[in-house]
Amino acid sequence: MPQYELSVIFKALGRMDLSKAIKRTSETILNSGGVIRSFDNVGLRKLPYKMFKHGNRYDEGNYYIIKFDCPPNIVPDLKAHFNLDLDIVRPKILRQEKEISRPCHHRPCDFGEMNIDMRERLKDDLNKYIKKL
Predict the structure, then answer these.
(1) 6 vs 3, 12, 37, 69, CA distance in Å?
(2) Looking at residue 89, which CATH number applies to its domain?
């Protein structure tokens, strides 16, 4: 299953209401066949600009990042569900790309230089192609 990241802004709620909203959000992911990997609480912050959602204006919110795995066909349903949730100001689901390791991290790096054997093989191959032409 691909990895996803839900970057979500909840309304500025009290502790009990916020925990209910987080529980509801995580249950939605779990009930749709997802597996939650981690939660990150970024905290209560002022929003970069005034956001309007469900007829209300918000200028601060609780930021959370939830990393999870789920089948790709479930993501549109999750987006639709989170957009209807009255406690969520801004949901954003992003697909996590696998990190590509540096080529020189596990072995010596040659930076594209050719050693003597490679040069000889290249010369031989070129000579073969030239003779065919």
Answers:
(1) 10, 18, 11, 11
(2) 3.30.70.60
